[in-house]
Amino acid sequence: MESLLIWSIAAIMGIIIFIPYFLKFRKQQKNFIERRKEAETLGIIKPQAQFPFIDDSLCIGCGSCVAACPEGDVLGIVYGKARIINGLRCVGHARCEPACPVGAIKVGLGDISSREDIPILDMDYQTGVPGLFVVGELGGLSLIRNAIAQGKTAVEKIARDAHRSNDPAIKDVLIVGAGPAGLTAALTAQKHNLSYLLVDQQSPGGTILQYPRRKLVMTQPVEIPLYGKLQKSEYSKEALLEIWEKIIDDFDLQIATGHKIASVQKHEDFFLVKNERSEFRARSVVLAMGRRGTPRKLGVPGEDQKKVAYQLIDAKSYTNNHVLVVGGGDSAVEAAVGLARQKGNKVSISYRKSQFFRIKKKNEDRINLLIREGKVQPIFNSNLTEILPDSVRLKTNKAMLDIPNDFVFVFAGGIPPFKMLREMGITFGGDAKPLD
Ligand SMILES: Cc1cc2nc3c(=O)[nH]c(=O)nc-3n(C[C@H](O)[C@H](O)[C@H](O)COP(=O)(O)OP(=O)(O)OC[C@H]3O[C@@H](n4cnc5c(N)ncnc54)[C@H](O)[C@@H]3O)c2cc1C
Asked: Could you read off the pLDDT of 152-172 as tens digits, one per residue?
């Protein structure tokens, strides 16, 4: 009798403890299923750049990958298996990989055979044109640590194979782009005593220069050749740029700025690399040009006015203004958030889709809070049709809107330099002919 009582109490206690977990699990499961359905409709479960690939035969649905991802709902557990919920949010931290206890997840580019935006490269980031390399974000993988690792690997390969140039007019390596990938390539060339030149259209720093002021940059410990380890997991934009500036000074890197490269032609013994006003010769070329290319313009009347910009470096310079931000990605949302926090600004954000769906969780939370507080006015399903001196005109699916305006920030992405790469003879995934 006594043991029955003990068992009954134990069973009741068990149920009391179990029920909240069960309810939480059910709620989470329902949420994941709904988000997965929504993601299917929006087409964001397909690979774009880096992406988590799940091996269903190994996945045990434990959710470690979901918990490990710093970007929010890239992954979820649906019917006992890890599933992509918002693949566009994956920026390649790859924390899910070591978190998975059974090795069922891998972050990468996956099968690129139908990808017209991913160049075909070998293990050393060499293209199909011998001596021509593509490193960093241009190759499809984002993140500073990937850019550093790839810049190093490519130039180490060149150092191993180099038939060094005896002609001082022909460098061993010409590197195009002075972001993290190109700077690392230059350091590696220096380390291996290769003659090299690093050229860029702008000052060194790459995309980091375009980050908003004081942005926190997430990295993982990574070894920079000659310099040593980047130890911390977070740096401010300014601190990171200072490190690169110190590296450039300390190692006296050979950099020429103000050169926007327009073509690379293979000659018998060297590459001829040209822009409008100069040309360079080198035995190998490393393209580290990133993917941002030229900012995409909207092509609307009034876009050539001074009040229209394609990046926002310092939100603090704008107060008491009517501002329109155009776009729905992280850059647009971060700009809208920064501007809405300044005194007296009235910020609207125009996006052609019905909601923000490809932004980081942190940005989503921030913008939603500002929308609820009335500090940002979202105008979904809208297109900017005209920019007037004191206002902007937007077409929504319901009406035409005229709103007062002092500044417009357009974040419609960049036009990546793929055409130029194809002209150099580089093949992309989608260009490859199927094997017989
Ligand atoms: C808003 C934002 C936030 C980010 N936050 C993070 C983060 O927190 N952590 C992280 O790891 N990554 C982050 N990233 C990604 C990271 O910045 C990139 O992956 C990294 O900078 C890529 O380095 P890269 O050297 O390949 O190219 P880039 O840094 O893009 O550098 C390319 C360089 O090539 C030059 N170039 C381009 N075309 C030519 C040409 N024709 N001729 C001459 N020069 C040319 C450009 O001027 C540029 O200097 C972020 C990106 C953005 C946009």
From this structure: 999 999 999 977 778 999 999
Q: Which residue in 300, 312, 294 sits closest to 395, CA to CA? A: 300
- 46-55, 115-124, 198-207, 263-272: which has the minimum mean pLDDT? 46-55
Amino acid (one-letter) located at 315 = A
Q: Are residues 285 and 320 in the same domain?
A: no
Is the minimum distance from the CB of 179 to ligand 1 under 6 angstroms? yes
Q: Which atom of ligand 1 is nearest to the CA of 135?
A: 26
pLDDT tens, position by position, 9-31 = 888 887 888 888 778 777 777 77
Do both 405 and 421 map to the same domain? no
What residue owns the CA closest to ligand 1's atom 37? 289
Q: Which atom of ligand 1 is least distant from the CA of 202?
A: 47
* Domain assignment of residue 115, yes or no: no
Asked if residue 178 has its Cβ within 6 Å of ligand 1, the reply is yes
Tell me, yes or no, whether 317 and 251 share the same domain.
no
pLDDT for 89 equals 78
Whether 289 is in the pocket of ligand 1, judged by its Cβ within 6 Å, is yes
Do 269 and 351 sit in the same domain of this protein? no
Tokens 């910020």, located at residue: 347
d(CA 30, CA 26): 6
Give the distance (Å) from ligand 1 centre to CA of residue 166.
Answer: 33
Q: What is the H or E stretch that residue 78 is in?
A: strand 75-78
Please report whether residue 436 resides in a domain. no
Q: What is the pLDDT of residues 409-428, one digit of tens each?
A: 999 988 889 999 999 999 99
Give the torsion through C-alpha atoms of 214, 218, 222, 228, to 10 deg: 20
Contact at 8 Å (CB) between 136 and 151? yes
Instruction: Name residue 358's amino acid.
Output: R
CA-wise closest residue to 154 among 177, 128, 121: 121
Q: Which residue has 């990808």 as its token pair?
A: 115
What distance in angstroms lies between residue 206's CA and the mean position of ligand 1's atoms?
5
Q: Closest ligand 1 atom to the C-alpha of 206?
A: 49
For residues 23 and 69, membership in a common domain is answered with yes
Neighbour order of strands in the sheet with 400-404: 382-387, 391-396, 400-404
Q: Whose CA is nearest to atom 16 of ligand 1?
A: 143
Q: What are phi and psi of 216, to 5 degrees?
A: -85, 125
Are residues 160 and 266 part of one domain? yes
pLDDT attached to residue 47: 57
Number of domains the chain is built from: 3
142 or 55, higher pLDDT: 55
| Boundaries of domain holding 75 | 2-108
115 within ligand 1 shell (Cβ under 6 A): no
